[in-house]
Amino acid sequence: MPATTLPPLTLVLGGARSGKSTHAERLLTALPAPWAYVATAEAWDAEMRQRIDVHQARRGSGWISYETPLDLAGVLSGDAAGSPCLVDCLTLWVSNLMHARRDIAQEADVLIEALSKRTAPCIMVSNEVGLGIVPDNALARQFRDEAGRLNQRIAAVADRVLFVAAGLPMNLKG
Amino acid sequence: MPATTLPPLTLVLGGARSGKSTHAERLLTALPAPWAYVATAEAWDAEMRQRIDVHQARRGSGWISYETPLDLAGVLSGDAAGSPCLVDCLTLWVSNLMHARRDIAQEADVLIEALSKRTAPCIMVSNEVGLGIVPDNALARQFRDEAGRLNQRIAAVADRVLFVAAGLPMNLKG
Amino acid sequence: MPATTLPPLTLVLGGARSGKSTHAERLLTALPAPWAYVATAEAWDAEMRQRIDVHQARRGSGWISYETPLDLAGVLSGDAAGSPCLVDCLTLWVSNLMHARRDIAQEADVLIEALSKRTAPCIMVSNEVGLGIVPDNALARQFRDEAGRLNQRIAAVADRVLFVAAGLPMNLKG
Question: DSSP letters of B97-165?
Fold first, then answer.
């Protein structure tokens, strides 16, 4: 797709190891560099630090990386406001917010407000986690509900929504 | 979609918190009221009663509610026979039948027979539960198999089948 | 679809009890018999033996059956090289390879090389297992990752990729 057709907000949904992040990177890098990579993962220990560094090295030059486990809106409307941007991923953000005992509906309001003010394109990657058996664990059920609700809210404001399976996108919207 | 185009039987599949029920309600309420809401959930206790009441209040007026944990065919060919109807949901019905030690294949025969005699449109909501890791638990595996088989049988007789993710429908049939 | 249009390699993805195997059989048997059925399941005991026999009886005549828990490439480029072929399923093959402590990326290289040399059509069935909650169990997470990676690799070389839900195919590629 020509660079000029990437809309303001794209949501890329998919399962674990579905190729959703790679697909999102390919869409974004069709635009001219530099690109912002906004990671919601946090380096808690040396192993995690190393995994994040490996990912950065794989992406190569042209990327500016941000790590923001909680304040996604701040980065998207602050340092990364002017750049085409990849957020990877919303599901981990929900998990981080739950651990920090934040109100997720309220955080989603703030995020959607920040997204509405951007002009540079943004691609958000998110997991679909509701297509298995109901988890035994109450916290896992709550997480699944929160992640599903956030996906619905972002999809509602997104210009384009894709569902990726085995590396291949299906068009849900836009 | 214009009201006159809603076919006799629509199946709406999706994950937990995928927006499938909301999408189904929107399709049905494009037809003139009253609409039948056929819930397979049962109020076992005060908390469950309250949750069901909250759902009813949210749907607003124009709806006639039925609660039928087991006898879906009876309601669909009885009290709700003449009304456009939303069944929410088939997956919970399978779970209820398993608890009641009913023969699910046989119950599905009776349900499909009842559906074939209706003339008012019916939308059935169901969960897709087979896209995660194989459950450790034998009962969960059996439930997953029964739910999957029922989805296939209803899809085979449905005029239209939709798969909803993040609130957005994909067309599988019709 | 007319027999002559079945491409060299088709991947049929889907959940448990999604009807993916039945759909794959229907596609293959549109071609003239005999057809090769390449099972990755193994008869460990009498119960498993009986289940496999029941499946064979259901498929009926015209099929030549192979059981190959590990050496898929050998069968596809050996005894079954000249026949239209159904492989059921890749996900169980990944599980078998993990139990045998094989290097899955390397085994996938060998499989893809063998597929590239076939001229008779091949349909491979595989489970999508990454759309539920993250498993607690580390081995289950590793399995999910390996299965997802293999699906991506096979999808990349396949001529056609289908995703089956409730017995109904969605076209992902080709």
Answer: HHHTT--HHHHHHHHHHHHHH--S-EEEEEE---SSPPPSSHHHHHHHHHHHHHHHHHHHH-SEEEEEE
A99 is an active site residue: no
- pLDDT value at residue A4: 56
Which chain B residue's Cα is nearest to C144? B133
- Residue to mutate among B11, B17, B104, B131, with most C CBs inside 10 A, is B131
User: Does B168 sit within 8 Å of A173, measured CB to CB?
Assistant: yes
Interface probe, candidates C91, C131, C146, chain A, greatest A C-beta count within 10 A? C131
φ, ψ at B66 (rounded to 5°): -125, 140
Nearest to B130 among C16, C144, C167 (CB): C16
Residue C132 has what pLDDT?
96
Across the interface, of C131, C143, C167, the residue whose CB is closest to B156 is C167
The one-letter code for the residue type at B25 is E
Contact A162, A11 (CB under 8 A): yes
Q: Which of B124, B113, B118 is nearest to B155 (CA)?
A: B124
> Phi and psi dihedrals of A173, rounded to 5?
-160, 140
Q: Which of C153, C88, C147 is nearest to C123 (CA)?
A: C88
Q: What is the pLDDT of residues A7-64, one digit of tens each?
A: 999 999 999 999 999 999 999 999 999 999 999 998 778 877 887 788 788 888 899 9
- Name every residue whose Cβ is closer than 8 Å to that of residue A17 and which is 6 or more positions away in sequence: C130, C144, C145, C147, C148, C149, C151, C152
Categorize the per-residue pLDDT at B167 as very low, low, confident or very high, splitting at 50, 70 and 90: very high
Mean confidence (pLDDT) of chain B: 93
Interface contact flag, A167 C152, Cβ < 8 Å: yes
Does domain C3-173 match CATH 3.40.50.300? yes
**Nearest Cβ partner for A130 among B18, B140, B167:** B18
Cα–Cα distances (Å) from A5 to A2, A28, B83, in that order, read 6, 11, 46
Burial of C59 (0-12, 13-18, 19+ CB in 10 A): middle
Of the residues C55, C59, C118, C153, only one is catalytic, namely: C55
| Chain C residues within an 8 Å CB radius of B129 | 15
Which residues of chain A have a CB within 8 Å of the CB of C161? 166, 168
Q: Could you report the per-residue pLDDT of C7-54, keeping only the tens digit for each?
A: 999 999 999 999 999 999 999 999 999 999 999 998 778 877 887 788
* Structural contact between residues C1 and C31, judged by C-beta atoms closer than 8 angstroms: no
pLDDT of residue B109: 98
